[in-house]
Amino acid sequence: MPIQLYERKEILEACLSVFARHGYKDTSTGMLAGAAGISMSLIFHHFNSKKTLYLSLLVHCFVR
């Protein structure tokens, strides 16, 4: 069962495996929220869209 994650960095890290497994096109915001253990509205609170979350994840991975 996922841990409740509210920090932006932790949300990104939880979503990484979902994108890696399903790819951008086949990943839904519901899947991302489920992996992070948060609501979809909280996903949209931190990131305006799935595209913004994905691009933020790329930056997170390559800028570390």
How does this model look, in words?
- The protein is an all-alpha fold.
- The protein has a single domain, classed as Orthogonal Bundle (Arc Repressor Mutant, subunit A).
- Helix content is 69%, strand content 0%.
- The protein contains four helices and no strands.
- α1 crosses α2 and α1 packs across α4.
- The longest helix is centred in the first third of the chain and has 15 residues.
- The radius of gyration is 10 Å and the shape is globular.
- The model has no long low-confidence stretch (mean pLDDT 89).
Helix content: 55-70%
CATH H-level homologous superfamily name:
Homeodomain-like
Number of strands: 0
Count of helices? 4
In N-to-C order, the SSE pattern is HHHH
Rg, rounded, reads 10 Å
What's the architecture, going by CATH?
Answer: Orthogonal Bundle
Name the overall outline: globular
Average pLDDT score:
89
Largest sheet geometry: none
Uncertain runs are none
**What's the number of structural domains?**
1
How far from one another are the termini? 27 Å
Proportion of beta-strand residues: under 5%
- Classify the secondary structure makeup into a structural class: mainly alpha
CATH class type: Mainly Alpha
What brief labels describe this structure?
single chain; mainly alpha; Arc Repressor Mutant, subunit A; 64 residues; globular
Short recap of the structure:
The chain has 64 residues and is mostly helical. It has helices at 8-22, 29-36, 40-46, 50-63. The chain has one domain (8-63): Arc Repressor Mutant, subunit A.
